[in-house]
């Protein structure tokens, strides 16, 4: 982690109809930083993540990437920011290798051979080197999620967003996915992780954000958040979990 | 008893005698079917794409087209193209008219099949495509369309089968396809049963073969499901 701000979220507002889901969120993300976003269901933490790469259209405020505010088109930004979903969303009609190479080949126009080589390396990294030629339906949830991570990494992103990456997994499969994310953290990847795995958040994060009622209610180091919470709702939230 | 057997023998004698005489007409039925299926599919896909542009004008045009095709009988549509359009200065020979009419007709139904299949692809697929930086067109081409086609195959198969049978309506605009030739043979022999039997057999064979092909395609595309 260093002191270069790669991503700045400024006064972000998001409405779903009448309902204001995000009520002016401000956040600066430093290069190499791992931020965990925690909070109750419906607090707006996933929406916050999805606004960053434009999967949800913000209603107000700015997403500023490397000093430049993103206007309407998020396509370019999405090449720089990878995302991993709760339900993986692998492409069921493409083999694992083709899931991973689709982005590089279509968006970056990488040659097939080169894209494949890179994909094999990524599969090795997530421990699935032997699965390159099967279809997603053949994999367990944990394996699918690891492929999804490899697919996002194939674009060589600067930032990775994780939207509850282990919430849809059987308990015994959570560990293998967290291990991969942890490895990424060690390599210095900038990451924002929406998670309910508090032990993991505590271990891997540089900063933890507690989102409540559409706002960042508290932000701090894992120690500050988990051992010395100030916000009343955060205290209750942490109690309810441990 | 002997009389019964004799009548069966007579039945098949007529059937066997006339079966080869159907072949040119069956050829026409096949041509009409294949062309209406191919053009209808292309047309249906085009209409679906126009709808997906989300441009109000294009969308209303396609809606009008679909509602007219679905709201009137094919028989009337064929009459209109063959007898009506020449009055407006648009004249086609009977085969072209039939192909246009049949393709136009199946196109409307096929576009609805595609629309349903596209809507049935989980929205997460689109999001995953966006997340790796694909644009709308790339998402549609590489992610949505292949999955939608797969979903659409059973319903498309049905529509193709209907298209084969619908081609018999081309007989009303003077095309000597299977049904018209059957009627002519009936008129000549006053012996409808064996002749209609032969016509039925030809349709049955065509459709059975078509179904087999469709089943194969479906199975092929299902490889990746488990």
Strand arrangement, largest sheet of chain A? Answer: 6-7-8-3-9-10
Mean pLDDT of chain B: 93
Oligomer: heterodimer
Order of helices and strands of chain B: HHHHHHHHH
- Average pLDDT value of chain A? 94
How many helices of chain A? The count is 9
Could you name the ranges of chain A where pLDDT drops below 50 across 5 or more consecutive residues? none
Please summarize the sheet with the most strands of chain B: none
- How many E-type strands of chain B? 0
Briefly note the structural class of the backbone of chain B. Answer: mainly alpha
Radius of gyration of chain A: 18 Å
E-strand count of chain A = 10
Task: Summarize the helices and strands and which ones pair or pack.
The complex is a heterodimer of chains A (242) and B (226).
Chain A: E1 5-16, E2 19-30, E3 34-38, H1 45-52, E4 60-65, E5 68-69, H2 75-80, E6 81-84, H3 96-107, H4 112-125, H5 141-153, E7 159-163, H6 171-186, E8 190-194, H7 198-204, E9 207-212, E10 215-220, H8 222-227, H9 232-241
Parallel strand pairs in A: 3-8, 3-9, 6-7, 7-8
Antiparallel strand pairs in A: 1-2, 1-4, 4-5, 9-10
Chain B: H1 2-18, H2 23-52, H3 56-71, H4 74-84, H5 94-120, H6 123-131, H7 136-166, H8 178-189, H9 192-221
């Amino acid at each position: 982690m260093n002191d270069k701000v790669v991503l700045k979220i400024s006064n972000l507002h998001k409405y779903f109809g009448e309902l204001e889901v995000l009520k002016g969120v401000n956040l600066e993300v430093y290069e190499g930083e791992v931020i965990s976003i925690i909070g109750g269901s419906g607090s707006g933490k996933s929406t916050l993540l999805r606004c960053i790469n434009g999967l949800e259209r913000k209603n107000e405020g700015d997403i500023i990437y490397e000093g430049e505010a993103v206007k309407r088109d998020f396509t370019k930004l999405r090449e720089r920011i990878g995302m991993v979903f709760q339900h993986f969303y692998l492409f069921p009609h493409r083999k694992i290798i083709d899931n991973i190479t689709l982005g590089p080949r279509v968006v970056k126009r990488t040659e097939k051979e080169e894209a494949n080589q890179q994909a094999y390396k990524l599969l090795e990294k997530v421990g699935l080197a032997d699965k390159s030629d099967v279809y997603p339906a053949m994999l367990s949830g944990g394996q699918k999620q690891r492929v999804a991570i490899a697919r996002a990494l194939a674009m060589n992103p600067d930032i990775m967003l994780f939207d509850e990456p282990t919430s849809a997994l059987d308990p015994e499969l959570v560990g293998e996915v967290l291990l991969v994310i942890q490895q990424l953290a060690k390599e210095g990847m900038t990451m924002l992780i929406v998670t309910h795995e508090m032990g993991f958040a505590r271990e891997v994060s540089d900063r933890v954000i507690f989102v409540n009622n559409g706002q960042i209610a508290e932000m701090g180091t894992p120690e500050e958040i988990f051992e010395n919470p100030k916000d009343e709702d955060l205290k209750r939230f942490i109690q309810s979990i441990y | 008893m002997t009389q019964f057997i004799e009548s069966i023998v007579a039945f098949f004698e007529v059937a066997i005698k006339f079966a080869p005489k159907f072949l040119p007409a069956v050829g026409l039925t096949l041509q009409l079917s294949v062309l209406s299926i191919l053009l209808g599919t292309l047309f249906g896909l085009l209409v679906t794409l126009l709808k997906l542009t989300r441009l109000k004008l294009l969308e209303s045009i396609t809606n009008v087209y679909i509602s007219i095709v679905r709201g009137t009988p094919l028989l009337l549509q064929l009459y209109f193209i063959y007898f009506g359009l020449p009055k407006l200065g648009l004249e086609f020979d009977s085969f072209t008219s039939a192909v246009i009419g049949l393709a136009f007709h199946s196109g409307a139904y096929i576009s609805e099949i595609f629309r349903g299949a596209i809507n049935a692809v989980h929205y997460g697929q689109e999001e995953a495509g966006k997340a790796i930086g694909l644009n709308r067109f790339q998402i549609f081409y590489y992610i949505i369309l292949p999955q939608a086609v797969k979903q659409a195959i059973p319903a498309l198969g049905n529509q193709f089968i209907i298209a084969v049978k619908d081609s018999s309506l081309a007989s009303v605009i003077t095309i000597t396809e299977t049904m018209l030739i059957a009627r002519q043979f009936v008129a000549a022999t006053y012996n409808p049963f064996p002749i209609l039997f032969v016509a039925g057999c030809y349709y049955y064979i065509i459709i059975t073969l078509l179904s087999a092909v469709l089943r194969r395609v479906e199975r092929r595309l299902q490889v990746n499901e488990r």
